[in-house]
Write a structure and sequence with these properties.
Length: 232
């Protein structure tokens, strides 16, 4: 079986918007950055990869297994973290960890405790009082405190401060390079992709306009590349 993510000729239609066709490959231990303006199709692609939206055409497989909508067996190996994670606001961070830990069979309390210290989250604080950056950190913690194999991150650094953004970038690098997680990071921030990713896919109005390895490109050259393909 082929290892990793395989997307073949994916097409999704939502109202008058059409994404695709998009094809890509992502091996374990590599991070792919999705670059594009708001409305380019980044979230639509991620939900399709996650099996959370219907595909009009094409296929998505993870380690040779079809990713299909409603397949709960994939909720542990594949984690999808949105820009504003859907959490119960009235719960504390500690209660949220307990609740989510009871859902996943492969939940690792020791890893969650380590991540709590690393991300400096207050376990007594209620979720609805957390800043956007802290909510993003909590969403990441919940996603990686079990045996996740593929991590899908949708604009998780949007609206966070520079220190939090740097922490998230370092965490993505650690997950991919040391734990072998395949990561797809959607962002409109060039620095996120430059510092955290190995490859890049640029979308414009639902269509891929560039796809390839970063090869250590500087932010300036990545920005120039993006705008050379009509980015905006």
């Amino acid at each position: 079986m082929p290892a990793g993510l395989a997307v073949d000729s994916l097409v999704r239609r939502r109202g008058g918007f059409v994404l695709g066709p998009v094809s890509l490959r992502l091996e374990p231990g590599r991070a792919l950055g999705l670059l594009g303006a708001n409305g380019a199709g980044k979230t639509t692609l991620l939900t399709g990869i996650a099996g959370q939206g219907r595909l009009n055409e094409g296929t998505v497989t993870w380690n040779g297994r079809p990713v299909q909508r409603g397949d709960w067996r994939l909720r542990e190996p594949i984690a999808f973290v949105r820009d504003v994670p859907a959490l119960y606001g009235e719960l504390t961070v500690r209660q949220t960890l307990s609740f989510v830990g009871g859902i996943y069979r492969t939940w690792q309390p020791a890893r969650a405790a380590t991540m709590l210290d690393l991300l400096r989250l207050d376990t007594a604080q209620r979720v609805n009082t957390l800043s956007r950056g802290m909510r993003a950190k909590l969403g990441l913690l919940l996603a990686i405190s079990h045996s996740v194999e593929m991590l899908l991150l949708d604009e998780v650094t949007a609206g966070v401060d520079a220190d939090t953004r740097a922490e998230i970038q370092r965490l993505i690098r650690t997950l991919t390079r040391e734990r072998g997680v395949a990561t797809v990071l959607s962002s409109h921030i060039f620095e996120d992709v430059e510092h955290a990713c190995d490859d890049v896919l640029m979308l414009r109005a639902g269509l891929p306009v560039f796809q390839g390895p970063l090869d250590g490109a500087r932010t300036a050259s990545l920005r120039d590349l993006y705008f050379s393909y009509g980015g905006q």
